[in-house]
Design goal:
This protein is an alpha/beta fold and 282 residues long. It has one domain: Alpha/Beta hydrolase fold, catalytic domain (Rossmann fold, 3-Layer(aba) Sandwich). 35% of the residues lie in helices and 17% in strands. The chain contains ten helices and eight strands. The protein has an eight-stranded mixed beta sheet with strand order 1-2-4-3-5-6-7-8, with helices on both faces. α2 packs across α3, α4 packs antiparallel against α5 and α4 crosses α8. The radius of gyration is 17 Å and the shape is globular.
Length: 282
């Protein structure tokens, strides 16, 4: 399936690289903006194209600042993603849309739901972290050692985070066997987008981590559109306690836990999330 790519210049002079699958041809077409995890470019998820097409879903997306073809945005907050998303939609001539965020894209999808209430019709997150200062959440409980080191470094600041990211390899304990099977099978697509996401360095990942662990810049109670929060109970990169916390603090949210699945393997159930998204956004 062909995905059209283009660049736009934001109101503050940054370049954002956009993706658009193009019209589906259905009269009831629903546009879904994909918010990728870290460290990924923002190309929409190829493994879900067939399912999305059957539901009449048209994918759009963009590289978050510092990834792929998008310029860095030093000091960006999670809330800033909503302003970027608005400009992407305007650039592509789209008024209303749903949002779908995986992993580090989850907070950015929620930002759109909270801050673009007149344009966002529904929100889906899978494997999303909670805010770094989430009250009452034992943030690092059940998290792999590598993830703990990375996010604790983000709390302590840019310099330490950059050092940790530059010096450490990915902790294999972050993925359970089901994740490895997905990455070697149905979700092998990740290999290419991760390589593309880090091709120009780690700026995007640094800003993602710093933004996630800092105040997000909005309240989850501001989200008015329906929200589905999906999480695998076997996730060691972002434990499912984060999904529970998000659902408990977002009045519009429904929580759906997937027993035994990990951070990536839970995406094997994403088609169910897309069906929910299509039903609730329409």
């Amino acid at each position: 399936m062909i995905v059209h790519e283009s660049d736009l210049v934001t109101v503050d002079g940054r370049v954002l690289h956009a993706y658009d699958q193009g019209p589906t041809g259905r009269f009831d077409e629903l546009v879904v903006m994909w918010h990728a995890g870290a460290p990924n470019i923002g190309a929409p998820p190829d493994p879900l194209f067939e399912a999305a097409l059957s539901l009449g879903l048209r994918w759009i997306g963009y590289d978050r600042p510092g990834y792929g073809g998008s310029a860095p945005h030093r000091g960006a907050t999670v809330a800033d993603a909503a302003a970027d998303a608005r400009q992407i939609a305007d650039h592509l001539g789209i008024d209303r849309f749903a949002v779908f965020g995986h992993s580090g894209g989850g907070p950015r999808a929620l930002a759109c739901g909270a801050l673009l209430t007149e344009r966002v019709s529904a929100v889906l997150t899978i494997s999303s972290p909670a805010p770094g200062r989430a009250a009452g959440l034992d943030y690092f409980a059940g998290m792999s050692a590598g993830s703990v080191r990375e996010l604790r470094a983000a709390v302590r600041g840019r310099a330490e985070l950059e050092q940790v990211l530059a010096s450490e390899e990915f902790d294999p304990e972050s993925f359970i066997p089901a994740d490895e099977a997905a990455l070697n099978g149905s979700w092998s697509w990740f290999d290419g987008i991760v390589r593309a996401g880090t091709a120009h360095g780690l700026d995007g990942m640094v800003e993602d981590d710093l933004g996630t662990m800092a105040p997000w810049g909005f309240d989850l109670a501001q989200v008015k559109a329906p929200v589905l929060i999906m999480h695998g109970t076997g996730d060691r990169l972002v434990p499912s306690s984060h999904g529970k916390w998000l659902a408990a603090h977002c009045p519009a949210a429904e929580l759906r836990l997937v027993p035994g699945e990990g951070h990536i393997s839970v995406l094997n159930y994403a088609e169910h999330g897309l069906t929910w998204l299509a039903e609730h956004a329409r």
